[in-house]
Amino acid sequence: MKQLITVILIFFTLTITLNAQKSPELGKATLFERLGGTEGINKLVDEIVLEHMKNPAIKVRFLPYKEQPERLALIKQHTVEFFSVGSGGPAKYSGRDMVTTHKGMNISREEYIHVVDDILLVLSKNKIDDESKKDVLFILWSLKDMIIGK
Asked: For residue range 42-58, what is the model confidence (pLDDT) as tens digits?
């Protein structure tokens, strides 16, 4: 329960911080809006998962989900919710906290960096602006200690 509260507090803090640090050219749009809202984030998550499945350094963790379409759909749903909440969107996150989710996976620092690289690649392919990419990177980097080595 403490971990869930910690994750929620981190996301509220990040959302407030990101919203307070908007650049003038981006106006008053939240990161959620800059990522295309729910529809845009759904598209990004689909493409990110495909990149993970092609990435030689981490595909072994993701390819088994091809054989489990219902499980993959749930993971994608939780990821969309997580990105939506963390970027200032109106969604609710129904998944487990990051530590519980990744417990026993023993994800290495190198694997985590590959995941982040794939995410940034997909953001670039979708012409997401640099400021938004920095905001996403900030969120991802803030989560690393909850995921790496658990």
From this structure: 999 999 999 999 999 99
